[in-house]
């Protein structure tokens, strides 16, 4: 092996190692500080790990009535799952219709969907809240979920994916007497589970991390999400650092689990365009 090749390989691995350390550093700090005391977090004498793990910090997060953290975890999980299912169903059907069903206004509708991607969310925020308020959906799950169910970006991704879906499978379904809806649900969806899983992971993460819309619509503490609850732990008067770090650590556990279990499908759905075999 040439010396230049060895040097290039070493440089690449060194760059990857540095990038890995920089990426994992915030997670290390979160984990370390979650089980430490405020004195150890802010102290001058820094230690890699706390002198003793403060397991009581876990219970403190859930017993804090001002944060209502247990309830907010349930709210975020329910909203994320419901929004993901609704978004996947609506956007996949819209994407398939734009990709496969020939109708007169398919192109203008597709351009209209693309146009929504160019509109800043701040422009539609106030009109959306007025509609939710008029419907009486403030402080309700439907008020948080329904206005963001349809995603133009997700519909666009599904359309681009379905354009490359093998037509032979769809034609076989039509020969068996299936219509567009039957072909979609019985042939296209079962053979596209990798891509559906990839989009589901992205949608779950996006829904879980939403802050401003749930903050405005879910004004009652019983409707707070995890992100809103985290913000209440930091006030102008007091900041319990160990509690903030522990709550942040707990809040990312569901996302880590989703990513771990669906990682294979995420990579497959992003890197590949369709069906094997």
UniProtKB/TrEMBL annotation:
Q: Does the record carry Transport as a key word?
A: yes
- Look up the domain of life of the source: Bacteria
Compartment(s) of residence:
Cell membrane
| Membrane disposition | Multi-pass membrane protein
So where does this one cross the membrane? Answer: 12-31, 77-98, 110-132, 144-162, 183-205, 241-262
InterPro entries linked: MetI-like, MetI-like_sf
Q: Which positions fall inside the ABC transmembrane type-1 domain?
A: 73-262
Q: Which UniProt keywords are given for this protein, alphabetically ordered?
A: Cell membrane, Membrane, Transmembrane, Transmembrane helix, Transport
| PROSITE patterns in the record | ABC_TM1
Methyltransferase as a keyword of this entry, yes or no, is: no
UniProt similarity note: Belongs to the binding-protein-dependent transport system permease family.
Spell out the protein name for this chain.
Carbohydrate ABC transporter permease
UniProt source species: Pseudonocardia zijingensis
């Amino acid at each position: 092996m040439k010396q230049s090749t060895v040097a290039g390989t070493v440089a690449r691995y060194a760059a990857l190692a540095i990038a890995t350390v920089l990426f994992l550093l915030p997670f290390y700090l979160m984990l370390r500080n979650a089980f430490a005391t405020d004195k150890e977090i802010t102290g001058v004498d820094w230690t890699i790990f706390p002198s003793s793990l403060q397991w009581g910090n876990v219970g403190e997060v859930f017993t804090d009535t001002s944060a209502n953290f247990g309830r907010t975890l349930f709210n975020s999980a329910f909203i994320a799952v419901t929004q993901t299912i609704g978004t996947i169903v609506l956007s996949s059907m819209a994407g398939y219709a734009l990709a496969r069903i020939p109708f007169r206004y398919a192109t203008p509708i597709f351009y209209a969907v693309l146009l929504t991607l160019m509109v800043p969310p701040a422009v539609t925020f106030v009109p959306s809240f007025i509609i939710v308020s008029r419907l009486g959906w403030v402080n309700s799950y439907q008020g948080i979920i329904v206005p963001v169910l349809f995603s133009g970006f997700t519909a666009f991704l599904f359309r681009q994916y379905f354009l490359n879906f093998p037509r032979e499978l769809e034609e076989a379904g039509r020969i068996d007497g299936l219509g567009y809806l039957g072909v979609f649900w019985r042939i296209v969806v079962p053979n596209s589970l990798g891509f559906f899983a990839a989009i589901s992971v992205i949608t779950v993460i996006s829904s879980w991390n939403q802050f401003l819309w749930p903050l405005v619509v879910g004004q009652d503490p019983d409707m707070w999400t995890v992100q809103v609850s985290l913000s209440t732990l930091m006030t102008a008067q007091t900041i319990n650092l160990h509690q903030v770090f522990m709550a942040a650590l707990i809040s990312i556990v569901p996302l880590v689990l989703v990513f771990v279990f669906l990682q294979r499908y995420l990579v497959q759905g992003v890197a590949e365009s369709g069906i094997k075999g």
